């Protein structure tokens, strides 16, 4: 079971306390939204799980095993950022192939082509594979950057406000798409936002963070009924 268990995570940056005694279980296959205002510690939580930062105290277990001494590459997680982080002058196909061309992975070209075909279908961008990234709309660019995480097929996806740079209509469309993708992959999503609507419409569980502390955890209904 690819549960992610956070226990007693505490992190300071210099004199700023970003996270205090954060304890939470993200169940395998769930869609957990971390909700809270700017500065609440949401991004810090993702960075600790991804291995981009180390906690001062506490532990992170994935599938029952502490991952604190694992490098980011050794953890079965992928991070999707708010910015598109695409190579603008490469095609969609090349952008999606990029994470798979690492020599460490040793993927064959036919395997890469097959994987890109699958991911493009899930994201509904098959017809754009030969377009340059600069020729895409905002929603398409965000799909491709989600695609760059999907090609590696990790069990766990960490998403940092991936829809915040889009307009309201696209955000609404992609909320539905993300729920569908989550169901289709059967993967674990941990999704950070300050947008209550995103939390209420997408989450199986919502964790509310305030000033570095987890102040509530429950289903969207629990949170809605006990604000
Ligand atoms: P959120 O994602 O909820 O907006 P963050 O996790 O980014 O919150 O930040 C939590 C707190 O930690 C904020 O006060 C922020 O300014 C501080 N912080 C985060 N990263 C750093 C850093 N690298 N250096 C200094 N302070 C940081
Ligand atoms: P968010 O948009 O999720 O609130 P932030 O803008 O807080 O994200 O953080 C973006 C990046 O900047 C993160 O890597 C975070 O660790 C870093 N960061 C955040 N606050 C500070 C800060 N006060 N000083 C230095 N780095 C920071």
**Biggest beta sheet attributes:** 6 strands, mixed
| Portion in strands | 25-35%
Figure out the total of helices. 7
Q: Looking at the structure, what is the overall shape? A: globular
What ligand species are in this complex?
A: adenosine-5'-diphosphate
- According to DSSP, the number of beta strands is 10
Average pLDDT level = 92
Bin the helical content. 25-40%
**From the helix content, strand content and strand pairing, which structural class follows?**
alpha/beta
Strand neighbour order, sheet with most strands: 6-7-8-3-9-10
Cα separation of the termini: 31 Å
CA radius of gyration is 18 Å
SSE arrangement, N to C: EEEHEEEHHHEHEHEEH
Low-pLDDT segments: none
GO molecular function, one term: ATP binding
Keywords: ATP-binding, Nucleotide-binding, Transport
Protein name: ABC transporter ATP-binding protein
Family: Belongs to the ABC transporter superfamily.
């Amino acid at each position: 079971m690819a549960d992610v268990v956070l226990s007693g995570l505490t992190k300071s940056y210099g004199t700023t306390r970003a996270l205090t005694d954060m304890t939470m279980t993200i169940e395998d296959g769930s869609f957990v939204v971390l909700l809270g205002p700017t500065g609440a510690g949401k991004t810090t939580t993702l960075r600790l799980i991804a291995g981009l930062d180390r906690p001062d105290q506490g532990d992170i277990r994935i599938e029952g095993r502490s991952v604190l001494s694992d490098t980011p590459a050794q953890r079965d997680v992928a991070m999707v950022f708010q910015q598109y982080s695409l190579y603008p002058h490469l095609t969609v196909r090349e952008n999606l192939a990029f994470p798979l061309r690492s020599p460490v992975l040793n993927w064959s070209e036919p395997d890469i082509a097959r994987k890109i075909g699958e991911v493009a279908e899930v994201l509904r961008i098959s017809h754009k594979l030969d377009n340059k990234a600069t020729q895409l709309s905002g929603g398409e660019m965000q799909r491709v950057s989600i695609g760059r995480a999907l090609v590696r097929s990790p069990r766990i996806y960490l998403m940092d406000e991936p829809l915040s740079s889009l307009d309201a209509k696209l955000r609404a469309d992609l909320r539905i798409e993300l729920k569908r993708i989550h169901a289709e992959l059967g993967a674990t999503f941990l999704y950070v936002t300050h947008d209550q609507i995103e939390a209420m419409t997408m989450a199986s569980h919502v964790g509310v963070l305030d000033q570095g502390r987890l102040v509530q955890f429950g289903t969207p209904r629990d949170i809605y009924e006990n604000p």
